[in-house]
């Protein structure tokens, strides 16, 4: 399975962003990010697993495993369709969930 065409990529990317924008998920991830602050170790121990959990609810529908490897493979597969401006923007929003916020 996986993403094999632009329409599927667009649908999967939209669903993924939607999962992260769900009010309950967004609030939980924001709380965890706040708790992590600038501590990168905490971010990797707390925020990455939560982001993976949120994304897994979508990616399993497309044949990816519901774990960090599945999330990584999914975002890598989306790259193949980033020639489409909408997919590129959505893909960047998904990937941003796995990157610590720049805080000073």
UniProtKB/TrEMBL annotation:
Record keywords, A-Z: Cytoplasm
Matches recorded under Pfam families: P_C10
GO biological process: post-embryonic development
GO cellular component, one term: cytoplasm
Family of this protein: Belongs to the UPF0456 family.
Matching PANTHER family: PROTEIN C10
Protein name: Protein C10
Source organism (scientific name): Guillardia theta (strain CCMP2712) (Cryptophyte)
């Amino acid at each position: 399975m996986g993403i094999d065409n632009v329409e599927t990529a667009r649908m999967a990317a939209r669903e993924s962003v939607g999962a992260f924008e769900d009010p309950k998920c967004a609030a939980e991830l924001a709380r965890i990010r706040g708790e992590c602050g600038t501590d990168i170790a905490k971010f990797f121990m707390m925020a990455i697993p939560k982001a993976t959990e949120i994304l897994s609810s979508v990616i399993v529908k497309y044949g990816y495993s519901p774990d960090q490897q599945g999330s990584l493979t999914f975002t890598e597969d989306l790259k193949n369709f980033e020639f489409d401006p909408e997919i590129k923007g959505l893909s960047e929003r998904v990937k941003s969930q796995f990157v610590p916020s720049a805080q000073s």
